[in-house]
User: What shape does this take?
Amino acid sequence: MNAYDVLARYYDADLRDHHEDLPFLREMARRAGGPLLELMCGTGRLLLPLAEAGFAVTGVDNSLAMLAVARAHVEEAGLGDRITLVQGDVCDVTLPAGAFSLAFVAVNSFMHLETVRDQLACLTNVRGALQRQGLLILDLFNPNPAEILREDNRLVLEREYQLDGRHVQKFVAIDSDAAAQISRVTFLYDETDAEGCVTRRTTRFVLRWFYRFEVEHLLARAGFMTRAVYGSYDLAEYESNSPRMIVVASPAR
Assistant: This one.
């Protein structure tokens, strides 16, 4: 089983109300004109509204369970003619050459690629799938050293919600290594049924965080030119205390 398969139902519920990045991506899609490519698309949170806006969108993810949830959403919305779902590793999945005007990796997903080898493989793969004037967007966590030093693997209740008639509590523990630029993340999901019985599911993964010029160097090695770096979805200038690091690049000529 894929390491992220256990997350599918919860991931979908966790992010169902996250819309902060949608206006930005919708506007970038309007400027690019489509077709669009989302790498690590998860359960389709962004695929559906972009398809509803009139764009043809291809979503790639390595998790069959994530794609199964996405496929159910696509069928329910009747958007199968605009959305294509592809199961595969973003580092080597076969993508049509020069087919897309815009590719993007949303909300920290690029950070799941731990090694420089995988990062470059992904970027090189997506470059081949972009049109000559196409754009790539990487939406990344902006590392704050002070906050990272406080991450000591303590367990924190992050949220609670109802899912399939059960009460869900999501606990998170993060242990970060500043020298390695990684965060080891543990998610615990406790589901309580009507009789009060609790089922716990646990998953662990590693996130690799980046600094600005490291990302620009990776992009250059993969054949991209950095066009802009923003600090928010409102296109604010990137600064040390910016909430996001949003990098926009295009294939180098």
The longest helix spans residues 64-77. The chain is about 25% helix and 35% strand. The radius of gyration is 18 Å. Helices lie at 8-14, 22-32, 47-52, 64-77, 116-129, 145-149, 212-221.
